[in-house]
Design goal:
4-stranded antiparallel beta sheet, Rossmann fold, globular, single chain, 6-stranded mixed beta sheet, alpha/beta, binds adenosine-5'-triphosphate
């Protein structure tokens, strides 16, 4: 589904990602792990060209999604981001109602009929496992929800434009253990429909949730393997040291 091919990223003189070659299978969860500053978020953000606006950033190599180069000249970033949704570390609902948060993307893409929008809002909130908690108060302000509910709302908002891929950048880092557990369960459920790439500092979470894991260090992929294998029998000593908590 996602093929990262000889990818190099520079921020000015800093070589942030070095010759990355990775393949993420469809309808699976890939975790990106590694110590702070190793390039996890940079890699995630190249998958929907989130850093395009940065003047000092340079991307070499390619990322291919469903056989199409996303850095090709003809690719429009709005269409790319419709296919590749993103959820951030801090829940960031718009300062509007629950309903309008979810309807925003579909409206932007031309859906106007109330009945159709109602259906999308319900289906997205259901898919993000937050429908039962909000269905009677869709006009309620999104910022009045708890942090965990806000984050599931943000996942619903990402799903509302019908993406294929969901990128999650430490999306449970600011949440309490119960909300974290709910999102982990949700992500495992979403894998049936979506290809998911998640950055996490939480190694136990990567082990619990993901199918494959990439361990990065100083901008390089040190090891990429099935999660069970990487955590039980890491091939590289540096991976072993990291997952054993000896650094990072
Ligand atoms: N916009 C930017 N401009 C300049 N340098 C940047 C920018 N974003 C990231 N970097 C640098 O690129 C390197 C990789 O950063 P990145 O945020 O991708 O790492 P990370 O592994 O996600 O870190 P963390 O776990 O702390 O979020 C770091 O040295 C960082 O300082």
């Amino acid at each position: 589904m996602i093929q990262v091919d000889k990818l190099n990223v520079y921020y000015g003189a800093l070589h942030a990602l070095k010759n990355i070659n990775l393949g993420f299978p469809e309808k699976s969860i890939t975790a990106l792990i590694g110590p702070s500053g190793c390039g996890k978020s940079t890699l995630l953000r190249t998958i929907n060209r989130m850093n395009d606006q940065l003047q000092h950033m340079k991307v070499e190599g390619d990322i291919i999604i469903s056989r199409v180069s996303i850095y090709g000249k003809e690719v429009r970033t709005e269409m790319l981001r419709k296919r590749v949704g993103m959820v951030f570390q801090l829940p960031n609902p718009f300062p509007s109602s629950i309903y309008d948060n979810i309807a925003y993307g579909p409206r932007l893409h031309g859906i106007k009929k109330k009945k159709e929008l109602d259906g999308i809002v319900e289906n997205s909130l259901r898919a993000a496992a937050v429908w039962d908690e909000v269905k009677d108060n869709l006009k309620q302000h999104a910022l009045s929800l708890s942090g965990g509910q806000q984050q599931r709302l943000c996942i619903a908002r990402a799903l509302a434009v019908n993406p294929d891929i969901l990128l999650m950048d430490e999306s449970t880092a600011a949440l309490d253990p119960l909300s974290t557990q709910k999102i982990e369960e949700l992500v495992k459920e979403l894998k049936k429909e979506y290809t998911i790439v998640m950055v996490t500092h939480n190694l136990a979470q990567a082990a619990r949730v993901s199918d494959q894991t990439a361990f990065l260090l100083s901008g390089e992929v040190i090891e990429f393997a099935r999660t069970v294998d990487l955590f039980s029998e890491p091939v590289d000593k540096r991976t072993e040291n990291y997952i054993m908590g000896r650094f990072g």
